[in-house]
Amino acid sequence: MKNVKIFLTALLAAGLMAGCSKKWLEDYTEDPTRPSDVSPRVLLSSAQVSYAMAQGDVLPRLSSIFIQQMTGTDRQSLAHQRYAQIGEGDFDQTWGPNGYAGGMMDLKIIIDKTSGASPHYAGIAKVMMAMYLGLFTDIWGDIPYTEAFQGANNLNPRYDSQEQIYATIQSLLDEAITNLQSTTSALKPGSDDLVFGGNLGKWIKTARSLKARYALHLSKRSGFNPAEVVSLATQGIDNNADNAQMVFAGPPNTNPWFQFNTQRLAYITQTGTMYDMMKAKNDPRISLYRSADSATMPFYGGQTSPLPFITNHETKFIIAEAKFRAGSFVRQDLIDAVTANMNYLGVPAADRDSYINAIPATPALDDIMYEKYVAMFSHIEAWTDWRRTNLPALTPVPNANLPAIPRRLPYPETERLYNDNFINLQGNDAFLKRHWWDVE
Fold it and tell me: Pick from 248, 258, 218, 211: which is nearest to 232 by CA?
């Protein structure tokens, strides 16, 4: 009995002490699965995977249907073929967990943590942030950035105009190049960089190709300078070994096209306007783009297929178009671009050369944009090119839910519900209102 009294007295004393201090609880209130501080080495890999899923999931499925590279043939994809049943909720995952709350937030933390002593990490993060901003603004137009990433300090970030976002993209890429060229960096990326394994030279080329891409997007805006685009692109990615892309290791980390086709086989078929055009030209890429039953994508839809971010062939097509607009284009510029794409895909040399020999002696802009349209198969950038140039000439599908091919997508539902600065586009404007750069 005496021992019990002593124990109760000690317990009471501990309780009184706990009432004055919670220090003894500190080790128990920290969740080991949710650390308050994470190394840039961990954040970088996470951000790159998040970006790959943002770029490679629902967005290219819709855009590829819109510009008739593919055909929606079953369930919701059949509705998408008619520009129907595309709702705000379809984009919550892309915008939130794969975007602002995921990869973009990770990149913002890296930039804030490493811009001083570890500029190499800051440089890569700025290139990736520029990719995100370019992807999102070309889908939705005005988006948050200046007031984003503040958490509870600002739950209603205002939207930067698309013109502002484009200026931010170029500034981020300029800063990134400077960071990546630094001769000192306390932390040096390696295998945690899933794109280039820490190769800074390849990141610099990527930054310059991206600068050229987003400068070319302004081809319909006043002040556009095609010679500047050529200068930027010729300093960018110049061989297939330097392509910026995500290569998937295999289960459970598989290409998003593979995931979709595995779960929803034949919802989308690899037929349509682009296939018909390719067939008419005896294009040797057909068997690489579509399986015999047209249900899957041999090159881009395998478990470990690459997901290109920006490539040598895109850069060469940028050069070809910009040179055409500058009046300095020659046929070899287009041949270089098509060759780069066919080599990337693994087209046999004889088939490649036979196709290239049939390219017109004096290619027009229509020829350049057609070849780029085919080369950018399944990449969301192909939709942007069509919106910029209206090439190739496409017509809306019969019995469509809209009077024209969509030129944008609705803002996510979470923005309408939780951000007071949400831009509420009504009716057809949610799909057809032109972006700042999409001058009529």
Answer: 211
Report the residue count for the chain.
440
Alpha carbon of 71 to those of 51, 236, 265, 283, 386: distances in Å? 25, 34, 13, 19, 17
Q: How far is CA 39 from CA 4, 111, 149, 189, 220, in A?
A: 49, 12, 18, 11, 43
Is the Cβ–Cβ distance between 300 and 377 less than 8 Å?
yes
Amino acid letter, residue 80: H
How far is the CA of 307 from the CAs of 155, 363, 370, 398, in angstroms? 33, 29, 21, 32
What pLDDT, on the 0 to 100 scale, is given for residue 234? 98
Q: Could you tell me which of 85, 107, 103 has the C-alpha nearest to residue 94?
A: 103
Instruction: Give the pLDDT confidence score for residue 26 in this predicted structure.
Output: 53
For tokens 């013109």, the residue is 163
Beta bridge partners of 298: none
Return left, alpha or beta for 150; rule: phi > 0 is left, psi -120 to 50 is alpha, else beta: alpha
**What are the chain's domains?**
37-389 (1.25.40.390)
Amino acid at 435: H
Torsion 85-88-92-95 (CA) sign = positive
Amino acid at site 365:
L
Q: Say what the pLDDT of residue 343 is.
A: 98
For every residue of 127-180, DSSP letters joined together read HHHHHHHHHHHHHHSSEE-TT-S-GGG-SSPPEEPHHHHHHHHHHHHHHHHHHH
In whole angstroms, give the CA distance from residue 101 to residue 93: 10
Question: Distance between CA 322 and CA 316 in Å, rounded?
Answer: 10
- Give the span between the Cα atoms of 371 and 352, in whole angstroms: 13
How much is the pLDDT for 9? 44
Q: What tokens appear for 226 in the block?
A: 């095609």
Cβ-based neighbour number of residue 194 at 10 Å? 19
Q: Is 89 exposed, middle or buried (0-12, 13-18, 19+ CB in 10 A)?
A: exposed
For the chain, which ranges sit under pLDDT 70? 1-36
Q: How far is CA 390 from the centre of its chain?
A: 22
Q: What is the pTM of this model?
A: 0.92
pLDDT for 37: 74
Judge whether 137 and 216 are in contact, CB under 8 Å: no
